[in-house]
């Protein structure tokens, strides 16, 4: 059986039609949900690209082996799903961006890397840095196709030219959209009218967490009106529909070659995006709002259930044991993820499961912070993000989330802790941490977080190592 990972970057769950968005058009992704299983409450383990990708390739939480930053991808000595598949006889193909493997890890894990060849459509010139809109990431329509177009074209070509009597394929499509900047080619750029959108999530009454306010100040977002934020969301939705268009092209190639009948397809993202909600854009290393942690996870596998929805919480890194079980490969390392193959047959999830995420850095971890070159080029689009982390390091403090089906707890090493009643407050606007009527729930999730920290503090190799001396050592 072939396996395909479709991994759009920074795609949150609630902007897809099959996840209930009232406006956005995503017919091809919706088709995957109709022909497979949709996990309604899938949450990532970190809200930054590299840590999240390291997690969903290993089944490890970011703190387990130091993969908590952009600068620490998986090394050649560490396990990953692609290596196991390659060792089992799969032909492993990589398309698009990295943010996951260190260079030395590719030779043992990937047979071929397909470059995103072709020009990248450009946008109108960036705002002058003195313009209040410069750091919002909002740009005009692109004058040509994004590189994602060529990523998917290469994937289509591989499918159409694949010898189906040869080794099974594993394809990892790591495309860029809808990651900011917020732009797209037409007609997707203007596909959605900002005035037609549902209301954005407003700024919280107590302005928690503190770094939300700092981001608005450093990025000058507090100078922008509601209309700009709604346009940002509208373009983000257009970028999402563009991703769906590309998925449709891939599915067409699978349909026309007959490979659709022997291919398991996973569609998911590494994290979400604020896209104007809470008056914010992009993401933040210690941000743990559902807009950042909740991502789509749809698995379509031959012979499995159709139109099935798992409402109970799961964690994105569950795709590690799920993939290996579908491929008939034994697990070879200790991890904390849970196979969802049983759910693919129509079973429900675990109702009382608590899912976890983490982010941020300690003050002594200066090597982890973004913006290490500050002062740098103030015209760079990420300049204010790095500047804030350097000047206000507590705004990117260590943070951890424990989330049940009904409540979310966020504890931070600095600033306010947070507790949200998700049944009454799904947009996470009312922090209940200090309210006495929520003390029992606060204690329950705090104890769960402590138990999680103890249980996942380390991993030990499954294979024992000899304790003796190497042969040939000189004797006294």
What characteristics describe this protein?
single chain; 476 residues; alpha/beta; Alkaline Phosphatase, subunit A; 8-stranded mixed sheet; 4-stranded antiparallel sheet; 27% helix
Topology:
Layout: E1 2-6, H1 27-34, E2 37-43, H2 49-58, H3 81-87, E3 91-96, H4 106-109, E4 112-114, H5 148-161, E5 169-174, H6 210-218, H7 226-257, E6 263-268, H8 290-293, E7 294-300, E8 308-315, H9 319-327, H10 341-344, E9 355-359, H11 383-391, E10 399-403, E11 407-412, E12 418-421, H12 439-455
Parallel strand pairs: 1-5, 1-6, 2-8, 3-4, 3-5
Antiparallel strand pairs: 2-7, 6-7, 9-10, 10-11, 11-12
Helix pairs in contact: 5-7
Note down, in words, how this protein is organized:
The protein has helices at residues 27-34, 49-58, 81-87, 106-109, 148-161, 210-218, 226-257, 290-293, 319-327, 341-344, 383-391, 439-455; strands spanning 2-6, 37-43, 91-96, 112-114, 169-174, 263-268, 294-300, 308-315, 355-359, 399-403, 407-412, 418-421. It is an alpha/beta fold and 476 residues long. The chain has a single domain, classed as 3-Layer(aba) Sandwich (Alkaline Phosphatase, subunit A), CATH 3.40.720. An 8-stranded mixed beta sheet has the order 4-3-5-1-6-7-2-8, sandwiched between helices. A 4-stranded antiparallel beta sheet has the order 9-10-11-12, covered by helices on one side. β3 (91-96), α4 and β4 form a beta-alpha-beta unit. The chain is globular. The mean pLDDT is 94.
């Amino acid at each position: 059986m072939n396996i395909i990972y479709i991994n759009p970057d920074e795609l949150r769950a609630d902007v897809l039609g099959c996840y209930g968005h009232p406006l956005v058009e995503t017919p091809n992704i919706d088709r995957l949900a109709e022909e497979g299983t949709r996990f309604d409450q899938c949450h990532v383990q970190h809200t930054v690209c590299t840590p999240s990708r390291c997690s969903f390739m290993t089944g490890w939480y970011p703190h387990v082996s130091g993969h908590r930053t952009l600068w620490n991808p998986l090394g050649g000595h560490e396990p990953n799903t692609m290596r196991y598949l390659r060792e089992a006889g799969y032909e492993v193909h990589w398309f698009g961006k990295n943010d996951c493997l260190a260079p030395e890890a590719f030779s043992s894990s990937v047979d071929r890397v397909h470059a995103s060849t072709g020009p990248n459509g450009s946008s109108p010139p960036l705002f002058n840095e003195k313009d209040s809109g410069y750091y919002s990431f909002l740009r005009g329509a692109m004058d040509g196709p994004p590189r994602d177009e060529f990523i998917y074209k290469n994937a289509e070509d591989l499918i159409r030219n694949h010898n189906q009597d040869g080794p099974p394929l594993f394809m990892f499509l790591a495309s860029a959209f809808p990651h900011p900047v917020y732009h797209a080619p037409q007609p997707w750029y203007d596909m959605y009218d900002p005035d037609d959108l549902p209301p954005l999530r407003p700024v919280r009454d107590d302005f928690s967490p503190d770094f939300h306010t700092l981001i608005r100040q450093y990025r000058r977002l507090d100078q922008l009106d509601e209309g700009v934020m709604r346009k940002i969301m509208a373009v983000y939705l257009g970028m999402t529909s563009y991703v769906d268009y590309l998925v449709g092209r891939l599915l067409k190639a699978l349909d026309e070659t007959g490979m659709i009948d022997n291919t398991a397809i996973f569609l998911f993202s590494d994290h979400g995006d604020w896209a104007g909600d809470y008056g914010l854009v992009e993401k933040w290393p210690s941000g743990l709002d559902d807009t950042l942690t909740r991502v789509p996870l749809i698995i379509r596998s031959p012979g499995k259930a159709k139109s099935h929805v798992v409402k109970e919480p799961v964690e994105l890194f569950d795709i590690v044991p799920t993939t290996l079980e579908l491929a008939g490969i034994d697990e070879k390392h200790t991890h904390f993820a849970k196979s969802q193959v049983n759910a693919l047959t129509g079973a429900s999830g675990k109702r009382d499961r608590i899912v976890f995420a983490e982010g941020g850095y300690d003050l002594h971890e200066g090597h982890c912070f973004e913006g290490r070159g500050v002062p740098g080029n103030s015209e760079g689009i990420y300049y204010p993000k790095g500047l804030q982390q350097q000047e206000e390091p507590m705004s990117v403090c260590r943070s951890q989330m424990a989330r049940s089906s009904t409540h979310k707890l966020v504890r931070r090493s600095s600033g306010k802790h947070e507790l949200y009643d998700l049944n009454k407050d799904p947009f996470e606007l009312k922090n209940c941490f200090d309210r006495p009527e929520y003390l029992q729930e606060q204690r329950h999730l705090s104890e769960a977080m402590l138990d999680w920290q103890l249980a996942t503090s380390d991993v030990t190799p499954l294979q024992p190592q000899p304790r003796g001396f190497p042969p040939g050592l000189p004797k006294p």
